[in-house]
Write a structure and sequence with these properties.
about 350 residues; mainly alpha
Length: about 350
Amino acid sequence: MLYWLTEFSDGGDVFNLFRYITFRAGAAFFTALIFGFIFGRPLINLLRKRQKHGQPIRDDGPQSHITTKAGTPTMGGLLILSALLVSTLLWARLDNAYVWIVLFVTAGFGLIGFADDYAKVTKNTHKGVSGKVRFGIGLAIAAIAGYWAATLHPDDLSWRLAVPVFKDVLLNLGILFVPFAMLVIVGAANAVNLTDGLDGLAIMPVMIAAGALGVIAYAVGRVDFSEYLEVHYVPGTGEILVFTAGLIGGGLGFLWYNAPPAAVFMGDTGSLALGGALGAIAVATKHEIVLAIVGGLFVVEALSVIIQVAYFKRTGKRVFLMAPIHHHFEKQGWAEPQIVIRFWIISLILALIGLATLKVR
């Protein structure tokens, strides 16, 4: 929104700074961060007042959670999403369609998560909205976003899948690009949702992944950077950096209250929305495969559940003591902060590997 102030700039005043994506990204970061610090505590107090019993704790989860996490309110994702929305609308160019694609997916999955969280806290049960309903609506949102992105991509990239490292490899998926994009977006949303099981476990890897994807979006959105790095140029995606900066700022504001012991959980409101956002950014920037590297932690968490369920149905036995895999380590006696910090370290390493694909050609 504030970008339009550049119309009053003569090139030598403060309004000229608003032309630069990097300046607006920094402003979006601090806007979201300050928003989180200002409204975090009032929101938590409101959620505690509205949610008398807090987030329902699963009986089949780690027994320690029943005592240590009982009564903690959920829907803290509202803080992240509000900060993200305000900062993006203030500082991003609102004539950029890629920004609206990512906002559309984030808001859509945020509403799905909110409905699920609301059903849980009002009924005081860990069962919220039907999984089929959530999955179906998520697929519809992802289908719209995938088709929308494909129509915006340059002709030589549209409907195609870019393969990292191999600069000249483009797989023409045709109309199958849409279901592929659906898989990426819905898969990312649910993978982050599965990861959100310990205080601070999901939000930091989300911020790390968003930071990496923001750098990628900025690089592929600049013709000079894309030529130097020999990556596919996707004009307009650089503006996504403003969105990711707002996400990181809002995430840090939330983490201030989510650090162990958490004062609030992000809930499905936050985890589904943020995961969907990562998937949408990957689709917009033609880096869907790189997302599997940058967000490798989320992939492992999701795979641990898939493997556990499939193996149990086939043999009646378990591969892990409990899935997702972070609960497996809890069962092995690892302390919660130990698991969380080590997973953060793994996320950072994977993000750096993902960024390295920009240079390795």
